[in-house]
Amino acid sequence: MHRYPYSMGEEIVGEQLVDPFGRTVRDLRISVTDRCNFRCQYCMPAEGMQWLPREEILSFEEIERFARICINYFGFDGIRLTGGEPLVRAHLPELVERLALLGVDTALTTNGATLRMHAKALAEAGLKRINISLDSLQPERFLELTRRDELDRVLDGIAAAVDAGLKPVKINAVMMRGINDDEIVDFAEFGRDKGLTVRFIEFMPLEAGDVWNEDLVVPADEIVEKINKAIPIEPIVRGSEPAERWRYLDGKGEVGVIASVTKPFCGDCDRVRLTAEGQFRTCLFAVDEFDMRSLLRSEANDEEIANAIVDAVGTKWAGHSIGQVNFIRPSRTMSQIGG
Length: 339
Ligand code: SAM
Ligand code: SF4
What we know:
Helix content is 29%, strand content 22%. It has helices at residues 60-74, 92-100, 115-125, 139-146, 151-163, 184-194, 220-230, 292-296, 302-313, 334-337; strands at residues 2-8, 11-18, 24-25, 27-31, 78-82, 105-110, 129-133, 169-175, 197-202, 233-236, 244-248, 254-258, 271-274, 279-281, 290-291. Helix 1 crosses helix 9 (302-313). The longest helix has 15 residues, at 60-74. The protein starts with a strand and ends with a helix.
C-alpha cells in the first residue's frame, strides 16, 4: 500500500491514495439513505425491504467529516451522493452545501421523481452535475419497471434540473434484453432533442432476487451499433470515467455506454464507496466492508480514520469477475450499497 505526496500549487498538502494495483483512488460515492420511493424490478423487491434504523444512518456531520478526511488527506476530487433515493433524505441540499464548501466537485444520482421540488435548492447549494435514472420512455413500461406510475414526474424532474441550471444533466438508462432494449434509439433521440447526454448501462447482477442472467445483458457494442445505424456517431477519447463516449456526427451532442459486464473498466477504477450506515467498500462487488461509523462515533481522530481508509484501500482488488465461475454476488442490493 503506497501513499504519494500530492500538491496544490507549490505546497505539498497530503498524500495520494494508491491501491495495490497502482490506481489512485480519488472519487467517493456516498449513499445517504437505503430507502426509496420506487421499487425498480432490477434493484428492489416489491415489498419486504428492511430499512436501516435511523440511528444507524450517518448524520450530515459524520458524512461531512469523512468527506473532509478523504479530501484533506488524499486529495479526493469528486463526491457523488446516491442511495436508495437520495432525495428522500430530508434536507439534502444542506449536505450538498456542506460538501460543496469543501471545494470538491459534488454530484448526485437520483430517480428524479421529486426533483421538481428540490432542483433549485440543490443548484443553489452548489450541486453541479446530476444523473437521472430513466429506463423507459413509455408510461406503461415505466410503471412495470419501477412499480410506480411516475414517468411524467420524472420527465418534469429532468426539465426542472435543466431549468435550475444544473450542468451536465445526464440520463442513466439500464438496458435489459427483451425488456426495454427496443427503446435504444428512442432514448438517443430523446437525449438529442432535450440536449441531454444519455448513458446506457449494462445490467449488473446486483438486483434483489435472482433475476440477472447473462442473456439479459445488452452488450455495449450492440447498443453503439444500433445508435450508429440510426444516427451516425464517432468515438470520443476516453478518460478515467466508466462511460465510453460517442459524439453524433451532426454535432447534436453525445451519448455514453457503461459496459460494466462486457468490458469492465476496473483497470481505471478510482472510486470507493460509503454506505448509508457508514460501511466503506472498495468496489460495488466487494464482499468485505470496513466499519467507518464505529470509528466516526469513537474517540478516533482524523488521522486514525485516514489510516483506516489506507488499510481498507489496501484490500482493493484488481477487478470484479461478473460472468466468471469465481464471481461472488454481493449479499446486498445496489440500493443498499449505493449505486
Ligand atoms: N435511486 C437513485 C437512482 O435510481 O438513480 C440512485 C440509486 S440507484 C441504485 C443508482 C443507479 O444504479 C441507477 O441509475 C440505477 O439504474 C442503477 N442500478 C440499480 N440496479 C442496477 C443493476 N442491477 N444493474 C445496473 N444498474 C443498476
Ligand atoms: Fe430506487 Fe434507484 Fe433502486 Fe430504482 S434504482 S429502486 S430508484 S434505488
